[in-house]
Design a protein that fits this description.
By secondary structure, the chain is an alpha+beta fold. The chain contains 13 helices and twelve strands. Bound molecules: heme C (7 copies).
C-alpha cells in the first residue's frame, strides 16, 4: 500500500510496460506525472493545470497486455455525472482520496502520496514531538467496528453522504478520519438481493475489486468481532497479501475440527472432501473464491467467507468454487457430490 502512486522521474523503472507497445491510446513518457499500481493493473496520470487525469489506456499486469481504460455509463455510479472523456474526469474527487494522506478538496494538495501512517493512525504531529501511547490512534486499541472502518474507508465501494461537495461528486469518504464513525460520511453501495449488478452478484457478494469491506461486513466473522488486522498486517509481511500467516495456517489459528469456531467434521479431510495438500483442501479455495473482477478476467478474492454452492450458479449465474476448479464438470455433478458428503446436510446445497 506504500507504493501505489509513484513519479517516474523520481523512481525510474516504475513504468512496467514498454510504452511504445501501446496501440490502445498512445502517450509519451513525458506525459506521465504518476504511475498508479503494480499488482493487478497499472494506470497513468497526466497533469493538466492543478489536476491529474487518467490516460485512457491501462496495463494488465497478469496478461501483460494494454487495455482500454474508460469508466462507461452503467458501471461506476459517477460515470453519468462526468463528461465521457478521461481528460475531463479529474482524479481529485474520483481517486486521490484513497491513494494519499490529507487530500485537501479546496487546495487539491496532499500531505503525502500513498497510504501513509496517518491514514490509519491519525495526525502524528503531537506524537512525533513527544511520543506516548496516549497521543496516537492505534486500531489495535479500538473496538472492532472502528478498527475495521480504518480499512473499509478505502477498501469499499460507496458514496459520501454529503455529495455533491461544492458542486463536485466525490467517490471517497471526504471528511472521515480514523477514530470517527465512517457511517457519518460514507454509505456502502446499495444492492437488491437477486439482482446481478456491476458491483454485486445476486447473493450480495462483491462482483468487482476494492469491495473487501462491502463483503466482510456481511460475514459471521465480522459480527463476531474478527477484524481485517486479525488476518492482515498492514505494515507488510513476507506472505501474499500481507497475511499474518501463509495458507491454511492463518485460518487454523482460530479454526479446526473440534474447535468452537468449526468446522464441525471430525477431520479436515472430511470437511473439505480433498486430501491434505490438495489444491481443493485450501480454505481459501472454497471460502474465498476469486470472483471480484479487477481487470478483464483477473479477479480478487471474495471476503464474505460464504461457501457459494454450485446450485447458486445454476440459479443465479454466479460462479462457485467447485466448478471454477473442476472446469470439466457440471454444477449438477458438484451438487451431487456435496449432497452425498458425510456430515453435510443435503438441504444446504440445493
Ligand atoms: C493501512 C493502515 C496502517 C498504516 C498505513 C500504518 N499502520 Fe501502524 N498499525 C495499523 C494497525 C491496524 C495496527 C494494529 C495492529 C494490530 O491489530 O495488531 C497498527 C499498529 C502499529 C504500531 C503498534 C505496534 C504494536 O506492536 O503494538 C506501531 C508502532 C505502528 N502501527 C506504526 C506505524 C508507522 C510508523 C506507520 C507508517 C510508516 C504505520 N504504522 C502505518 C495500521 C496501519
Ligand atoms: C488510504 C486508503 C487505504 C487504507 C486506509 C487501507 N488500504 Fe489497503 N490498499 C489500499 C490501496 C490503494 C491498495 C493497493 C496497493 C498497491 O497497488 O500496491 C491496498 C492494498 C491492500 C492489500 C493487498 C496488498 C498486496 O500486496 O496484495 C491488503 C491486504 C490491504 N490493502 C489491507 C488493508 C488493511 C488490513 C487495512 C486496514 C488496517 C488497509 N488495507 C487500509 C488503500 C488503503
Ligand atoms: C474508496 C477508495 C478508492 C478510490 C476512490 C479509488 N481507489 Fe484505486 N484502489 C483502492 C484500493 C483499496 C485498492 C486495492 C484493493 C482492490 O483493488 O481490491 C485500489 C486499487 C487500484 C489499482 C490497482 C493497483 C494495483 O497494484 O494493481 C489501480 C490502478 C487504482 N486503484 C486506480 C484508481 C483510479 C484511477 C481511481 C479513480 C478513477 C481509483 N483507483 C479510485 C481504493 C480506491
Ligand atoms: C481471529 C480468529 C479467526 C481467524 C484467523 C479466522 N476465523 Fe473464521 N471465524 C472466526 C469466528 C470467531 C467465527 C464465528 C464462529 C461462530 O460464532 O460460530 C468464524 C466463522 C467462520 C466461518 C463460518 C461462517 C458462517 O457463515 O457460518 C467460516 C466459513 C470461516 N470462519 C472461515 C475462515 C477462513 C477461510 C479463515 C482463513 C482465511 C478464517 N475463517 C480465519 C474466527 C476466525
Ligand atoms: C472443498 C470446499 C471446502 C474447503 C476447502 C473448506 N471448506 Fe469450510 N465449508 C465448506 C462447505 C460446503 C461448508 C458448509 C456451508 C453451508 O452449509 O452453508 C463449509 C462450512 C465451514 C464452516 C462453518 C461451520 C461448518 O462446519 O459448517 C467453517 C467454520 C469452515 N467451513 C471453515 C473452513 C476452514 C477453516 C477451511 C480450511 C481448513 C475450510 N473450511 C475449507 C466447504 C469447504
Ligand atoms: C479471516 C481472514 C481475513 C480477513 C478477516 C480479511 N482478509 Fe483479506 N485476505 C485474506 C486472505 C486469505 C487473502 C488471500 C491471499 C491469497 O490470495 O493468497 C486476502 C486477500 C486480500 C486482499 C488482496 C486481494 C485479493 O483478494 O487477492 C486485500 C486487498 C484484502 N484481503 C483486504 C482485506 C480487508 C480490507 C479486510 C477487512 C475489511 C480483509 N481483507 C479481511 C484473509 C482475510
Ligand atoms: C482449488 C481447486 C479445487 C476446488 C475449489 C475444488 N476442488 Fe475438487 N479436486 C481438486 C483437485 C486438484 C483434485 C484431484 C485430487 C486431489 O488433489 O485431491 C480434486 C478432486 C475432487 C474429487 C475426486 C476426484 C473426482 O474428480 O471425482 C471430487 C469428487 C471433488 N474434487 C469434488 C469437489 C467439490 C464438490 C468441490 C466444491 C465443494 C471441489 N471439488 C472444489 C481441486 C479442487
Amino acid at each position: 500500500m506504500a507504493n501505489v502512486v509513484r513519479d517516474p522521474r523520481q523512481s525510474p523503472g516504475v513504468i512496467l510496460p514498454d510504452l511504445a507497445t501501446n496501440t490502445v491510446s498512445p502517450f509519451a513518457k513525458e506525459a506521465v506525472a504518476f504511475v498508479y499500481g503494480s499488482i493487478w493493473k497499472q494506470r497513468y496520470f497526466t497533469k493538466i493545470g492543478d489536476d491529474y487525469f487518467a490516460e485512457p489506456a491501462q496495463w494488465d499486469v497478469t496478461h501483460r497486455v494494454w487495455r482500454r481504460y474508460f469508466v462507461e455509463n452503467g458501471t461506476d455510479w459517477w460515470a453519468t455525472l462526468y463528461p465521457p472523456d478521461n481528460m475531463k474526469r479529474p482524479t481529485g474527487p474520483l481517486c486521490d482520496g484513497c491513494h494519499s494522506v490529507g487530500y485537501d478538496v479546496h487546495t487539491k494538495q496532499v500531505a503525502e502520496w500513498n497510504v501513509g501512517c496517518e491514514r490509519c493512525h491519525g495526525g502524528g504531529a503531537a506524537h512525533v514531538a513527544r511520543p506516548t501511547v496516549a497521543n496516537i490512534e492505534n486500531p489495535a486499541r479500538m473496538d472492532d467496528r472502528h478498527a475495521n472502518d480504518t480499512c473499509i474507508q478505502c477498501h469499499s465501494q460507496g458514496r459520501p453522504l454529503a455529495n455533491p461537495i461544492e458542486g463536485r461528486y466525490f467517490d471517497w469518504p471526504v471528511g472521515y478520519r480514523v477514530g470517527l464513525d465512517l457511517q457519518d460520511y460514507w454509505r456502502l453501495e446499495d444492492h437488491k438481493l437477486g439482482e446481478t449488478s456491476f458491483t454485486h452478484f445476486a447473493d450480495g457478494s462483491a462482483h468487482k475489486n476494492r469491495m473487501q469491506g462491502n463483503d466482510f461486513v456481511q460475514s459471521l466473522m465480522y459480527r463476531r468481532g474478527v477484524t481485517c488486522s486479525n488476518c492482515h498486517d498492514a505494515h507488510g509481511t513476507d506472505n501474499a497479501a500481507q497475511l499474518r500467516k501463509p495458507g491454511n495456517a492463518l485460518c487454523l489459528g482460530c479454526h479446526g475440527p473440534g474447535q468452537r469456531n468449526g468446522p464441525r467434521e471430525a477431520t479436515l479431510e472430511q470437511h473439505t472432501g480433498h486430501a491434505v495438500g490438495s489444491q481443493g483442501s485450501r480454505c481459501v479455495a472454497c471460502h474465498m473464491p476469486k470472483i471480484a473482477t479487477t481487470v478483464a478476467d483477473v479477479r480478487v478474492r471474495s471476503h464474505t467467507f460464504e461457501f457459494i454452492s454450485p446450485a447458486m450458479t445454476a440459479k443465479y449465474g454466479m460462479p462457485n468454487a467447485c466448478t471454477a476448479c473442476h472446469t470439466d464438470r457440471s454444477t449438477a455433478w458438484a451438487t451431487d457430490v456435496l449432497r452425498r458428503a458425510p456430515g453435510r446436510s443435503p438441504w444446504r446445497v440445493e
